[in-house]
Amino acid sequence: MIDIHKAASRYTADHGWLKSNFSFSFADYYDPDNMGFGPLRVFNDDTVAPQTGFGSHPHREMEIVSIVLQGQLGHRDSTGRQEVVRPGEVQRMSAGTGVVHSEMNPSATEEVKFLQIWFEPAQYGLTPSYEQKAYDQAKLVNQLLPVVSANGGEETAKIHQDLTLYLSRLAAGQSIHFEQKPGRRIYLFVMEGEVLLNEDTSLQTRDAARITKTTSLDIRANQDAYFMLIDLP
């Protein structure tokens, strides 16, 4: 089953310095029928104005992934890490037993656009940790590149959950096939362009699909597309 969620159906919050679109219940947006998808709990599409951001605040028992689409994201946390995340890099923070962090836009002129994605961990009580990995963006072209997984890797951040997060840039007319084990879920989100799923379901920019009971997925680009696919338990 492919359940489509159009971009316009997301909850939108505009705080001036921050513009967000929430795919699941978050902050002031609460819908008891939209609390997550498997261990995927939060999927926020954020735009932060120059020299503003999320000041220091705490988290516990959550795996938090950030993917920058444009600009820079400055990170600080109570483990002592201080980093800047840019396009072509992925950030994974395990909040575990408790961490305090901030995510700020250090630029004086450019907005930062990023995806903030939270997953419930497979195990609670973990020691807080941070990881940032750069990946070769050329490897996204016409294939699925894992940038977050339970196993990690040279260009793949390690997450404490049985999932893999792939990115891909698919040229118009090109196709990718994804085969999944039975009983799992797929979350697919289009950052740019348009894709066709299994020859009959179209997703455009910022649309998402929540996929269950479908182990075989063909993805074709109707126009140049940049998308994310998350293989979930």
Automatic annotation (TrEMBL):
This is Pirin family protein. Residues 147-232 form the Quercetin 2,3-dioxygenase C-terminal cupin domain. Binds 1 Fe cation per subunit. CDD domains: cupin_Yhhw_N (cd02910). PANTHER family: QUERCETIN 2,3-DIOXYGENASE. Pfam families: Pirin, Pirin_C_2. Its cofactor is Fe cation. SUPFAM superfamilies: RmlC-like cupins. Belongs to the pirin family.
